[in-house]
Every structure is written in C-alpha cells, then in structure tokens.
Amino acid sequence: MHLRRARPIRPLISLVSMVDVLLIMLVFFMVTSTYLDLDMLELAEPAEEGGGGAAGPADTVLVSIGGDGQARLGGAALSPAALTTALSDRLAASPGMQVLLLPSALADTQALVRVMDAAAQAGATRLRIVQLEPQR
Amino acid sequence: MKLRRPETRTPPETIVALIDVVFFLLVFFMLVGRMDATAPFEVQPPLSEGGADLPGGGATVSIGLDEELALEGTLVSRAGLLARLEERLAAEPALPVRLNAHGGAPLRALLPLAAEIEALGAQDIVLIVTREGGG
C-alpha cells in the first residue's frame, strides 16, 4: 500500500495587525507634523579667506531702522520698495557698495528681515548689521 | 420543479490595496517631515522673500515674543543657553546655530544674543524665516 504524506498546511499570516501598526504610525506622523516652509538668512557667515576687505566710507551706505520698523536712508523714511529702488541706484554707481543696517533695539525682527529683503532685491551682496548699544 | 437561485458568494475583501495606500502615505509623511524640537512657546518666524534653503542639523535657539529663550525646545535662561552653546561649540567648532525668532520679537533680544553667540566662536549663525506667501 502506497501512503502519501499529507501536504503541510501553510499557516495563514494575518495582515490585520500590520495594518493596525501602520495606521497608528500614519496617524502619529499626521498629528505631530507641522508643515512650514522654512528658509534662512545669514546673520554671521564663515569668515572669508583673503578678500572682503573693509570698504571705504564712499563705498558704504547706512540704512537705519527706527523703533517703529521704518527704514531710513539719509534721514528720509522709505517704504521697502522705495528703499530697493534707492539702493539699486547707488549700487549701479558703486557695485561693491557695502550696506550697513543700523536697527533700533526696539524694532522687531520682521522689520529687520523686511529691510534685508529690500537690500537683497536691490542686489546688495555686502550686508552688515551694526548695533550702537544693546538695550536690556 | 422548483429551481433554487444559486447562493451569491461574497468575494473575500482584500486588504492588500489598503496596505499599499497606507504604506505610501506613511513613506510620504516620513520623507516630507523633519523631526525638530519645537519651542515651548509660540514662534512665528518672520516672513521673507529672499531666504535660502535651510539645511538640517545645528543648534536651534528659539526666541519668543516676550524674549523668552529655548534651546532645542527646552526653556533656558540666557546664561544657561550661552553655557550650553559654549560646550557644544567646543566639541564641534563648525556647529551651525539657527536662530528661530518670533517675527514680533524685539531686536534687543536677537542681535545682542547673536553677537554673544558669535563671540563664543560660532562661525555660522542663521536666522530662520518663512517664505512669504508660502505654506
């Protein structure tokens, strides 16, 4: 008599528990994630080797920012668009001009960023922030 | 003669497609998300049109509207912050420092701190901004 070996029954692997784990991880990532498009502005860059010498007074323009966030160039209050235009004109005459920003300690960070944006749009590449005295 | 209508068999529901979708969503959220310690206070970075892409890594210093400070999501005093940054900069001199300041935070909280961090030896200090008109 010829006996056949019974076929082993493959154990059924349930996927339900894996789906549970995946769903929990998915919900975790969806709940804990906040989506912000973050960028950066350089405040202090690594020191350049060689170049980057100090500019003479003629190659420097000073933009002050008042406590109200208003930018002033040569004493005249300017909107960001007007500041961009004014700086563009000066940069056209002196391409390597350095732009010094002198913000009031009472101005907010957004005001400084607005002026930095205006200077960058004008094509200023040499931008420095100076402070007279920190107010505590 | 009575004919019986054959019983309709309900096909077994396959969950493979569901697993595929969940996997895709999971991978999507893992790829687009960046794990970062959030400040224990509200910080809305200033809006900017000219920011560069923010690289990962570095030490994140948060500055709140009321000049409160946090390092990597933990509330710290000014002295404590500078001491911890000094330790980290001693171990890793090229450590980038990211200043995550609230747009309404006064510059008296930001600029002197940036100057002090620079004096500690930090060579790369950046201000975190959000893109204007973007998410």
Keywords:
heterodimer, A: 136 residues, alpha/beta, Nucleotidyltransferase, domain 5, five-stranded mixed β-sheet, 3 helices, 6 strands, 21% strand, B: 135 residues, six-stranded mixed β-sheet
Number of alpha- plus pi-helical segments of chain A: 3
Summarize the biggest pleated sheet of chain B.
Answer: 6 strands, mixed
Q: Radius of gyration of chain A from the CA trace?
A: 30 Å
Measured as a percent range, the helix fraction of chain B is 25-40%
CATH structural class of the domain at 47-131 in chain B? Alpha Beta
Quaternary structure annotation = heterodimer
Top CATH class of the domain at 59-129 in chain A: Alpha Beta
User: In the CATH hierarchy, what is the architecture of the domain at 47-131 in chain B at level 2?
Assistant: 2-Layer Sandwich
Strand line-up of the largest beta sheet of chain A? 4-3-2-5-6
Structural class determined from secondary elements of chain B: alpha/beta
Characterization of the model:
The complex is a heterodimer of chains A (about 140) and B (about 140). By secondary structure, chain A is of the alpha/beta class. Chain A has helices spanning about 15-30, 80-95, 110-120, and strands spanning about 40-45, 60-65, 70-75, 75-80, 100-105, 125-130. Chain A has a domain at about 60-130: 2-Layer Sandwich (Nucleotidyltransferase, domain 5). Chain A is rod-shaped, with a radius of gyration of 30 Å. The N and C termini of chain A lie far apart (about 100 Å). The model of chain A is unreliable at about 50-55 (pLDDT under 50). Chain B has a domain at about 45-130: Nucleotidyltransferase, domain 5, CATH 3.30.420.270. Helices cover about 35% and strands about 20% of the residues of chain B. Chain B has about 140 residues and is α/β, with parallel strands linked by helices. The interface between A and B is large, with 46 and 52 residues. Strand 1 (about 40-45) of chain A pairs antiparallel with strand 7 of chain B, so a sheet runs across the interface.
